[in-house]
Amino acid sequence: xxxxxxxxxxxxxxxxxxxxxxxxxxxxxxxxxxxxxxxxxxxxxxxxxxxxxxxxxxxxxxxxxxxxxxxxxxxxxxxxxxxxxxxxxxxxxxxxxxxxxxxxxxxxxxxxxxxxxxxxxxxxxxxxxxxxxxxxxxxxxxxxxxxxxxxxxxxxxxxxxxxxxxxxxxxxxxxxxxxxxxxxxxxxxxxxxxxxxxxxxxxxxxxxxxxxxx
Length: 214
Prior knowledge:
- This protein is α+β, with helices and mostly antiparallel strands.
- The chain is built from 7 helices and 6 strands; from the N terminus they run ββββαβαβααααα.
- It is globular and about 60 Å long.
- The mean pLDDT is about 95.
């Protein structure tokens, strides 16, 4: 992983790469499992790829009311599980709860699972990070077909608020249309009042957001 500029982070349960303007996290979430047929106990390892784009997160930090977000890697702009990205290649969230089924029931399987995690990193996570760590790509990924759920958004409110920030920074000519659509979604999808407040704070902030230079 170090060959690709990623450093291990026990705290983040994965590997982190910091570059000028962005941060990428290849993270492993581990779940306890009991296999019904055999009764054997083990774990399921699910790899995720996350990207934080500094310019977007800088503005998001000004409007968020979520006090649980503290460290740099809490401010994720786009990303999801590798399995979800693979099973939704058009970017629309059609297939949920997908898994790579990386199961470990005994120690002898660890090396093979580690090898597969590296394989998925090279095949999916690394190209995802290299291609999408920019304001322009976030704008494209989150704001195309704005009425649909996006696999690249960690949750729907991030899709809306960070999508609007990206659209503004990227000088997206559809910005006002997007805001109207997202305002309606906040109501139709019965989102939390906190999220509605964040959107109002964001709209007040937008006139002071300077367009991205790249």
